[in-house]
Amino acid sequence: MVMSNNSKSVLVTGANSGIGLATAQYLASKGFHVFAGARNTADLAALCTNTNITPVRLDVTKTQDVLEAKKIIQQNAAGLFGLVNNAGITKAGPLMDVDVEDLRTQFEVNVFGVHQITQAVFPLLYKAKGRIVMMSSDSGFFATPFVGPYCSSKFALEGYSDSLRREIISHGMKVILIEPGRIQTQIWNKAEETMKSGKHVQSIFWNEARAMGQYSIRKGKTSGLPPVEVAKIVHLALTAENPKLRYIVAENKFEYHLMKILPASYVDKIVIRKIQKVTLEEAQKDKQGES
């Protein structure tokens, strides 16, 4: 059963590209009024023509931006029914080569930023008995090697979301986690730029990290789902009378479910074999390219 949204307002963070942009556009097309937040509002120029979308400058790590965004919502909407915490960044590399500042930056956006914007608009959501949608990832339950900072932040987000849900559920509110797998977004182009920078080229783990990075980028660009598929699930999470606590958005959902129930030692063996296989294949491709 799906409830009528009755032109309810929703704040979507990180709405300038990828999943956030697709979500803002999709929700607007379904009758929601969307406050589309992004660090650079110039990126939201294309959305300004849609009367159901209000662009908002919003860096979730900046208190002033957060307070101003709340003020804009209060001035331009009767209330706030939904918050889609989509803003996030990715820091990658072998953990023993990742400096603490990169790790702090990762958590500053993906965890502390989520807390700051959620806490700020919570009174509006509480009044509307609204919903909070957290954009997690398959990396929130399956920790892949060489993406440790990102995985750590998403694991933290999952714990944060579970605690928050259990605190507010008796007050008529809902917290829903979305866990996308590979999605065709700009994240792969950014990952490619990071790889080319050779930041961790001196690492003892570089061969494996480079191979896994190249493999993931290629798969993400060629077999990732379009962002609108995630947007559809966000809409479902906001409108279903009894939404699931978690939604995996991927073609290989069965494999992900297995990873959640198999013993960690068994999953370790699967991952190690994968690293060895991919490293060998990438090395062979490099040789073929040189010949």
Compute the average pLDDT: 92
Give start-end ranges of low-pLDDT stretches: none
Give the SSE string.
EHEEHEHEHEHHHEHH
Largest sheet: 7 strands, parallel
Number of strands: 7
Quickly count the helices.
9
Structural class: alpha/beta
Strand content: 5-15%
What do these coordinates show?
By secondary structure, the protein is α/β, with parallel strands linked by helices. The protein has helices at 18-29, 63-76, 100-128, 148-168, 187-197, 206-223, 227-239, 253-261, 264-290, and strands at 9-12, 33-38, 53-57, 82-85, 131-135, 174-180, 246-249. A seven-stranded parallel sheet has the order 3-2-1-4-5-6-7, sandwiched between helices. α1 packs across α7 and α5 runs antiparallel to α6. It is globular and about 60 Å long.
In short:
By secondary structure, this protein is an alpha/beta fold. It contains 9 helices and 7 strands.
What's the helix and strand layout?
Elements lengths: L8 E4 L5 H12 L3 E6 L14 E5 L5 H14 L5 E4 L14 H29 L2 E5 L12 H21 L5 E7 L6 H11 L8 H18 L3 H13 L6 E4 L3 H9 L2 H27 L1
Parallel strand pairs: 1-2, 1-4, 2-3, 4-5, 5-6, 6-7
Protein traits:
291 residues; alpha/beta; seven-stranded parallel beta sheet; 7 strands; 12% strand; globular
